[in-house]
Batch of 3 targets.
Target 1
Amino acid sequence: MLNWPRIRSLLPGAARAEPPGPVDEAALHALTAQLDETARTRLGRSLAIRHVNTGSCNGCELEIRALNGVIYDLARFGLRFVDSPRHADVLLVTGPLTHNLRQALVQAYDATPNPKWVVAMGDCAVDGGVFKGSYAVLGGAGMGVPIDLMIHGCPPSPARILSELRVLLELAAS
Amino acid sequence: MTGRALARIQSAPMEPCQPWPRYVLTWEDWAELAGLLADDALILLAVWADTGHVHALLDDPVSGTIVPISVGVQGGSYPALSAYWPVAIWFERMIHDLWGHAALGGAELVPWLDHGHWPVTQPMASRPGPPIRAPEPPVFQEIPGDGLIQWPIGPVGPGVGEAAHLRLTLQGETIVHAQARFGYTHKGTLTMMRGKPIRTAARFAARLAGDSTVAHSTAFAMAAEAALGVTVPPRAAALRELMGGLERIATHLDILGSVAELLGAAAVHGLCGLRQEHLRRAMAAGFGHRLLMDCVVPGGVAGDLEAAAVVTVRSALEALRAVLPGLRAMHIGNVLAARLNGLGSVDAARRTDPSINTATCGDAATRAMARLDAITADITALMPLLDALPEGALAVSLPSVSGEGLARSVSARGDVWHWLRLDHGQVAAVFPRDPGWALWPAVEMALCGAAADDAAVICCSLGLAASVVDL
Ligand code: SF4
């Protein structure tokens, strides 16, 4: 795990972590209603996230990398990226769901232990975005696996992604 | 010196593609040409199609001329270029999967973008077919030898990256062969663009790749403007140049930072991330989008850069310029340099394609230096531009006429080309050519001989994108 506070202190110029904004109340309520008690306990105060690209243009990935970097410092909230769906609590899906990647998404989903959450990040993953209706695209990630949280934007800004992901953490605390 | 192939081409009938005329060759001339191209040292940048023709884009490095050529498709086929020209292989497979035209006498037309999952076959053909085959796993060339292990990476690989499939053949820890398979992120972009008004189609050009959205939007817009014979106002042209430079700088920083992250060089990772974030916020403040998506539109630019935002952009660039010597030092003579030296060499001598950015040649250490040089050069070019932005209109309206155009812009990966034909203001045919078409084969080359554990760093150092070749 990267120790961003220490690295920030070594960098030239005054680098500060982005102050966390408010958590989206509406999304929190909607999710609380969905989740049962056991799932909430399992979720805990830390979440392992596995990114799954289902046909992205790589714009969403640019913002995920920013999120994981020195300014947004995901780790301070207990959020971290993992390389295998087997170690993940959350699948963060980007891109319209292409026919050619549907199977890969389903496999990643099946490999993720329960309870698990799927976050559709970006307009493409929400409903296919501009690619909706193409012969090569099924639509959003929901056409392959059940979705728990949607983050709109093309691509959503790191601040927005962060505040939405923190909804999942708040759930655990509630 | 104009060689035989070029002389032959230029005696063929011309179509008015702006600003480079397109030569329509007979079947015989095209077939013979394939053999002559190699002698003439002409560079094949792209091969693509429409419903009745196959087109190719040639670059004559001697005269600096760009030469689009075409051949009519007869009985569903055309003479292959791949028999002489290996770079044509992926294009010919792509053409077969999308339009159904078969390259005669070329490399085997194994399915490329079409993995058998689509509800249609040959979606770009005038009459697309029904699905005919069951989905099948990708076919890879068998590499003979004792004790070799196959190591598949992707399409959903570790890390936050591209969805492509790499099949590595390992002897012990060493990669002896690498093959890439594409098509996973195929979104039917060309069908989505076809038949759309220019402005609508531009949104798809902007989404070929997030890391080069300005470059693709600009090449697309310029091709449309060439076809329609319009010139954008000086302020729009200057803002495009500015946005293109900002995008390249941010992309280079992203690549440098990601490579450093993989190698655990946290200070470089942090510094690149910090400066990139500063820049992206300035981009958002100036143009309304962190990646500048949809900010370049056919006819001009979507919004103006206010005087206050000029200051913000300048200060982000100045802050970056101030840390460049430090970043450079961190790349020389320490742990990072030791890891990057000799890693994933792309032999410059074998790099015959001028469209690839020099930042992708040499080993990973050379590439990192080249990216730092490119950042310096872009900052140097952008500062005077910021000081003297021309006043005036941001866009011109586009006439609803017909025409054909070709244009180039520069991304962090190298030259981006867009060709298009407009029919009364709507896109009748289009093809975007990203340098990724030349870069991915270079990856296969760069991985050979490397340690398996270094594959991720090598791929990352090349700044690849799957979406641009998957279309
Ligand atoms: S939402 Fe936008 S940025 Fe994200 S993958 Fe889709 S087109 Fe690219």
Target 2
Amino acid sequence: MTDAIEVVDLEKTFKGAVRALDGVSFTVEEGTVFGLLGPNGAGKTTVVRILTTILRADAGTARVLGHDVEAEPELVRTLIGLAGQYAAVDENLTGRENLTMVGRLNHLPKTVVASRGVELLEQFQLTDAADRPLKTYSGGMRRRLDLAAALLARPSVLFLDEPTTGLDPQSRNDLWAVIEGLVDGGTTVLLTTQYLEEADRLASRLVVVDQGRVIAEGTPAQLKADLGSTVLDITLADPGTAARTAEELSGDGVLLASIGAKAPTLVGTILELPVDNGPAAAIEILRRLDQVGITPSGFTLREPSLDDVFLSLTGHKAEAANGQSAELPVPGGRGRRRGGSTTESREAR
Amino acid sequence: MTTASLPTVSGAPLATGAVAKLRWALADAWTVTRRNLIAYTRIPEALFFSTIQPVMFVLLFRFVFGGSIGHFTAAEGIPYPDYLMAGIFVQTMAFGSVSTSVGLAEDLQKGIIERFRALPMARSAVLAGRTTADLIRNVLVALIITGVGFAVGFRITTGVPEFLGGVALTLLFAYALSWGFAVIGLSASNSETAQVMAFPLLFPLTFASSAFVPVNTMPGWLQGFANHQPVSIVINAARSLMAGPKAAHLAGSTTTSLVIQAVIWCLVLLAVLAPLAVWRYRSRT
Ligand SMILES: Nc1ncnc2c1ncn2[C@@H]1O[C@H](COP(=O)(O)OP(=O)(O)O)[C@@H](O)[C@H]1O
Ligand SMILES: [Mg+2]
């Protein structure tokens, strides 16, 4: 199969010596959704900006449908659609006027611009608001309009930079459905996200980026296989008890193996334990803790998050280096990440 | 119907050949111009600055300061309303050019330029569309000032072609200034800064000039600057066209010489500022 996107050893250093990309490589097969998963400041937007000809890389090559973005930027722009991290729509125009403007700038025939506009407004449930100025639009409506604008010229390759960040769960689900529909129509999608759940739902392959480097690559299933399907969060009353619990569980290889658990990680007074079968493991663990006289103050079962990917991917690396851990807000409000970047972080939504 | 023949996956057409590229560059500039003009009609502040403010300046100088300044110009044989017109034209249009920098800074800040850069549109369209929209808005300003001017006693003493020539000259000057404000807008971190950065430049240039008072009423050290800076030269030229040779005489020159000087200033400013703005636009990440 042809590669829709080919990125080789991309490097970018911004003024002020911020090393945004430090040799990023990946390829995206035509007609698939590819995920670029990473925390805030990892370099995702920088990759997207280079691929969409907005920014020039310092080194490395980037190709879209075989065309080098630096050598043939004009051609590349006719093939791509971009919905950036922040909705790039014009506040002072109506929804329809925004789409018309983008259609004209794509040099599509007038009749096509008009009919595509109507079609997309309908598809994104903006028909009623089509002739209202954007000032009256909600965040979700702006996002949808932004995506509609990106799709106007029916691009072969679509770039979505954190498309659902800041959306409510309903809008997020709607958007996911739209993206799935696009891929059925043959469009290649490169999607950046901070949510493992999103990459898992949409992407057939993904890379995990951190501090401008690819630290893992594969299918979501492969990535999750290293994580277990469920994570048990066991909250203990104090650090002493937490340490004793960690020791107790780590020391019992037989128990851990019987519930398909990976090594537990201690973060503050919370012990995180990735397991294969959540409920069964929960029973075993609670029974065991009861035997040794430990009563957790909290106990939850949840899906693995980007946090856990990072723990598992960079966990030993960070320990080998200096064992440093950085506290960063992450989606879902669980504010911990290990070996994280030192860049600015946005508040979790 | 064209829609039906459009395949599911197609993308935008690509221009090949110089003629097609030029045609699209013009079309793109016009698309961006229209978009900016629509914005002007929808932002009350922009409408205020471009229409109410010039009217207030005309009234302020005609009725508040005009009583005392008028003696000086009347002594030279120029009624103050006639003296004031050219000054008001250049001053309001120069202040209006700030909207070029504010508009661009806002477009950068809100990310719309990020979208433009990824579209197959002409690279020149963003700047050309912005400055053209501001030129068109200035034509509207010129109409308003002319109307208000007539209401407060201004009369064309030369001829309609000369008067229109004077207006055209001020429009050309404002257009050249727009490119300078584009540089400021592209260098500012946000639209508020862009606005704040413009005024320390504009105040000395428009008020330490022959716009509202004859320069010979200023202290000697200021006269040197006020006589030779471009705003005064453009105003003197426009005033000579609008109010006749007495105005040229007041500036110590002839109408022809003043107009030539003013046009050269405008072209030099354009030749320097436009490439600078383009360079700023391209290098801005
Ligand atoms: N225009 C810029 N100038 C300077 N530094 C930048 C610029 N854009 C991004 N960076 C820095 O580069 C790094 C990667 O940023 P980015 O690609 O936006 O990450 P992500 O999209 O994954 O959050 C961050 O440290 C960020 O602060
Ligand atoms: Mg980003």
Target 3
Amino acid sequence: MIEIKNISKSFGERLVVDDVSFVFEQGKTNLIIGESGSGKTTIMKLMVGLHEIDKGEILYDGQNFPTLGVKDKQEVRKKIGMLFQGGALFDSQTLEENVRFPLDMFTEMSPEEKMERVNVCLEKVQLTGKNKLYPGELSGGMKKRAALARAIANEPQYLFCDEPNSGLDPKTSIVIDNLILSLTRELNITTIVITHDMNSVVEIGENVLYIYKGKPWWTGNGKDILKTTNPELLDFVFASGFMKEVYNAVKGK
Amino acid sequence: MNLFFHLGRYFLLIKRVFSKPEKMSVYMKQIVHEIDNIGISSLPIIAIISFFMGGVITIQSAFGFTSPLVPLYAVGFTVRESMLLEFCPTIVCLILAGKMGSNIASEIGSMRITEQIDALEIMGINSAGYLILPKILGGVLILPFLIAISMFLGIFGGYVMGVATHACTSYEYIYGIQAFFEPWKLYYSFTKVITFAFLITSISAYFGYYTHGGALEVGKSSTAAVVYSSILILIFNFLLTQLFLT
Ligand SMILES: Nc1ncnc2c1ncn2[C@@H]1O[C@H](COP(=O)(O)OP(=O)(O)OP(=O)(O)O)[C@@H](O)[C@H]1O
Ligand SMILES: [Mg+2]
């Protein structure tokens, strides 16, 4: 479980995250949604300490992360798996080496065990047999999936995913959503997913935080989001004409 | 003001670079890789430059020493002194600052802007140590060998070209390069080389590591890396020369 309490962050004069509190529950998929530029990635980076918070607390199972020393922070981070919005794969390493990297660094596994773990992870993200390719030889969606494989390689306790299914077709997108959901259940981990994808919100959004201009605007279950009366959230959810039509059709209008 | 900011941040970075590594075996592999990447790959350019510079210095000295008062072995002697004391340790390192500096800064800089460094940090890895230590150690280990090869090829180039152009005779040249040899001068030369290797790798890594923004800034970082490594090589060349030769 990760709890954030009243966190704020400004870049220069601009207040980007404004007094956000939320509880990201263990064993559940916690979603952060909001329009582009609303501060979702910034919240995630604050939580893992890539940006420093101006105010507030970030509690990893009760431990206040920002106040920890360098060594203790590293210990917490070894339990974190993170998928960056841009993938952040190591360019100089093959896919296999990328996924094996956390295993090389932090485990005493034998080469065979590592290889097996790598192949299992690659299979989960549907990249079987692509072991020897370099990131430069992958498509955008493949990079995303490869980065997810790296994030889950060492069985993290906290999994952060910044838009795991952007750039993926609807079918692969569902595979990835289901993968994230099943990992969360199986390993009983705390999973935080940033997404724009309304399908994911409804399918895997067990605990949703809607951010509007850096402020927490709505929280609840993904299934309830369609019943919301919050005007900004309605705008966000039904931004696409397609969603609107589906909604109206279902309502029988 | 700006200078103190950079100096402070540079020393803080160096402190992080030399803190205890996570896993020695991974670092050893990285060092070997860097020796190959920044060292061995520079060998062809160093070989060509040294050979021709040795040759040209020989011809120039022979051309200059026309007075009967200058002994004939002076040509070999001059070539040896200029190669060992200045050309190989300093000029070749300046050339390497261009090659290695831009290579290191742009590699680390592009890792920064594509969040690869953040990814390392998130995993709980000391990114400064992981990325920079192998480059510094690799550079400091391999550069003395490269420069030794450069010295040998420079003097050899002088011999080949001097004899081929009849600038001097084989006997005079070989006598010259052995005349009045003082071994301690090699300490001076190799102290310089090791210092310069540290300067090039650490300064370039510093500029790469603190790149902000996009591809444009990576270009700027690698320019800054080359400029500042070169300037510091010149300053330390002066300081070390004062220290050893006076
Ligand atoms: N390092 C930074 N320095 C200055 N401003 C920043 C920085 N990072 C983000 N911002 C600003 O903070 C705001 C929120 O950015 P953020 O990346 O969190 O948005 P986001 O919700 O993740 O958007 P998207 O869905 O497009 O990824 C933006 O206006 C952005 O310009
Ligand atoms: Mg984002």
